[in-house]
Write a structure and sequence with these properties.
Oligomer: single chain
Order of helices and strands: HHEEHHEHEEHHH
Number of helices: 8
Helix content: 40-55%
Structural class: alpha+beta
């Protein structure tokens, strides 16, 4: 199976100058765990994860803390995220995600962001028992579950 078979596209992105609370609201409203950070030209320069947006923002009761200026995504993001190409083997993507504790991986083609893969995207395939590109392709083309079952028996 290839990365393109399970990636989510189009991708919701944020810019480095986006206020951190705005990026957090975007993740919450869409149910995402991260968003790629892109320049005006569309180049991926980082990824804003839930952890990035929460880190250092909640203080224990009783602490007196000077209110720092509102951070931007560019100041809290994880810079230069690992990325894959659409034709890369999904097993390689998943292996990296699991080995390095990464939840979300941008998919880039010719320097452009074309998709994103999260653990949830991969889990959907596991739940549907779609373990090959052919199974995903047939579902997307509207085959019935009986037709998919027949394919599974022949694979």
């Amino acid at each position: 199976m290839r990365a393109r078979d399970v990636m989510t596209s189009p991708v919701i992105t944020v810019r480095p100058d986006t206020p951190a609370h705005v990026a957090a609201a975007l993740l919450v409203s869409h149910g995402f765990t991260a968003a790629p950070v892109v320049t005006a030209e569309g180049r991926v320069v980082g990824i804003a994860t839930e952890a990035d947006l929460v880190r250092g923002r909640i203080m224990p009761d009783g602490w007196v803390v000077e209110q720092p200026p509102e951070p931007t995504v560019g100041t809290v993001m994880t810079g230069t995220p690992l990325a894959f190409r659409p034709e890369d083997d999904l097993a390689d993507v998943v292996s990296l995600m699991l080995d390095d504790g990464i939840r979300t991986v941008p998919i880039i083609d010719d320097g452009r962001l074309v998709g994103i893969i999260s653990r949830r995207d991969v889990l959907r395939c596991v739940a549907r028992r779609e373990l090959t590109s052919a199974e995903v392709w047939r579902r997307r083309m509207g085959m019935t579950s009986d037709e998919r079952d027949e394919i599974k028996r022949t694979i």
